[in-house]
Specification:
By secondary structure, this protein is α+β, with helices and mostly antiparallel strands. 30% of the residues lie in helices and 18% in strands. The chain has helices at residues 11-20, 48-52, 113-117, 155-167, 243-261, 277-290, 347-350, 353-372, 374-383, 385-395, 413-434; strands at 68-73, 86-93, 103-110, 122-131, 139-145, 174-181, 184-193, 209-213, 223-224, 233-237, 300-304, 310-312. The longest helix has 22 residues, at 413-434.
């Protein structure tokens, strides 16, 4: 893992840090997917006052084997909304000392229901210059995902890895960190690649449109509304899209909606003129396998290609999945039955025998890959045990059923990720038996 080289620390501060961290090990901490952290030597100085923001008091929340991301906002401003981009600085710490230089960025809130209902907030950050952190490709834009609703903290990670493996294409990568904001410990976060047009992220042409079905767009977002679909489409690409192109894509989506509303999708193969059927089916099966509550509703991405074909994906926001029932307390969605086969954008195709045959064949290819990742749930879960002690001390959420985002209480973190694993395996076994019955 390559952080940017550290370039600060005056002599006096160096003495303070040396005393403060006397006895700390200089060994590397284990990283995710075989990545490990390099130790750096601190050299020149910026200013003592700036460095005061990055002196960690971790007596209550000790180092837990994952990097510490330390952020200080300008004048310690509070992050109150999803719109205001607040200037800030960020530094990465290892067990005993800084492992990056101080980097300039902006930070704002992010999320829909998680922003309004969760006491642990998620954030969008944008660096002043492109940065390569935790082995990822250089970029300015990243997300710090709180995973407050997901007590296993692993549902996004496993889902993204699954579809990337199945499709051999990009879905967001994740690296777990402890977050400190304005000298206050915030918990374990998923440092996550955001969805955007880039050669190392979503590979699309300048004339393709990258859209998100978003029930709660921000005030300054460009959006598309179409007849017959309940939610707006937020435009992620092109940036500052041309009004004529927006009208053109809006009309195309409206025509697609009209095609869906007709009887045509249930006959023949005309659907191939509208969708990439293979990708459409793969995306559908991940959402159906996981019983994701937000599928085809919010935080669902799609690409409208220049040639008119519509592709679903990349994946995003899979925490309300794998048994998550919504607002029902102390329940779990059952492993049997279907959830996504009666959605506006799936029902017409699943009434078509040819599409169902193709989809069932695709499921049979996907199933062995999905099975492999069951063991990953256990291994990732065990590797986060130390970090989760801090998380639980901060948020006290394992046994909680008081939050609308917490439907089920557990006795321990291990119980949470084991429950995820067991639901995952049982659901897979059921679909292997009944995938052919997917018709609505």
């Amino acid at each position: 893992m390559h952080y940017r080289t550290a370039r600060f620390q005056p002599l006096l501060l160096g003495l303070v840090i040396t005393i403060l961290f006397l006895g700390c090990s200089n060994s590397e901490y284990p990283g995710w997917d075989g990545i490990s952290s390099s130790r750096y030597t601190n050299e020149s100085a910026d200013s003592s006052s700036e460095l005061d923001h990055f002196l960690l008091d971790d007596s209550e929340y000790p180092y837990a084997g994952i990097p510490r991301v330390v952020i200080a906002t300008e004048n310690y401003q509070e992050i109150k909304d999803r719109e205001t981009e607040i200037p800030a600085k960020l530094q990465i710490w290892g067990e005993c000392s800084p492992e990056s230089e101080i980097m300039d960025l902006t930070i704002r809130g992010r999320g829909n229901s998680s922003w309004t209902h969760s006491p642990k907030k998620s954030y969008k950050i944008k660096f002043k210059t492109k940065e390569s952190l935790f082995g990822f490709h250089k970029d300015k834009e990243w997300a710090l995902i709180a995973n407050y609703a997901d007590k296993s903290m692993l549902k996004n990670l496993i889902s993204y890895k699954l579809l990337s493996h199945i499709e051999n294409t990009w879905n967001p990568q994740i690296f777990f960190v402890d977050l400190y904001l304005n000298n206050v410990y915030q918990g374990v976060y998923a440092f996550t690649e955001t969805i955007k047009k880039a050669n190392h992220r979503v590979k699309i042409s300048d004339n393709d449109f990258l859209l998100e079905i978003d029930a709660k767009p921000r005030n300054n977002d460009q959006i598309i509304n179409i007849k017959g679909f309940n939610y707006p489409f937020k435009i992620h690409w092109p940036k500052n899209a041309n009004e004529n192109k927006i009208i053109e894509v809006s009309q195309h989506l409206e025509n697609f909606q009209n095609f869906i509303s007709s009887n045509k999708p249930s006959k023949g193969t005309e659907y191939n003129q509208w969708i990439n059927a293979e990708k459409f089916a793969m995306y559908f099966w991940i959402q159906e396998f996981s019983k994701n509550l937000d599928a085809y509703y919010t935080s669902s991405f799609l690409i409208v290609r220049e040639d008119g074909l519509i592709e679903m994906g990349p994946l995003w926001d899979m925490d309300a999945a794998y048994g998550f029932p919504g607002w029902d307390i102390n329940t779990t969605l059952p492993i049997d039955g279907f959830r996504q086969n009666k959605k506006t954008w799936t029902t017409p195709f699943l009434k078509n025998d040819l599409f169902v045959q193709q989809a069932d064949s695709i499921w049979k290819k996907m199933s062995p890959i999905i099975k492999i990742y069951a063991d990953s749930i256990m291994s990732y879960g065990k590797s986060l045990k130390r970090a989760y002690i801090n998380e639980e001390k901060k948020w006290n959420k394992i046994e909680s059923t008081h939050s609308p985002l917490h439907h089920k209480g557990y006795l321990s973190y291990s119980d949470a990720f084991i429950d995820f694993h067991d639901w995952y395996i049982s659901r897979l076994n059921w679909l292997d038996k009944y995938s052919y019955t997917i018709r609505p």
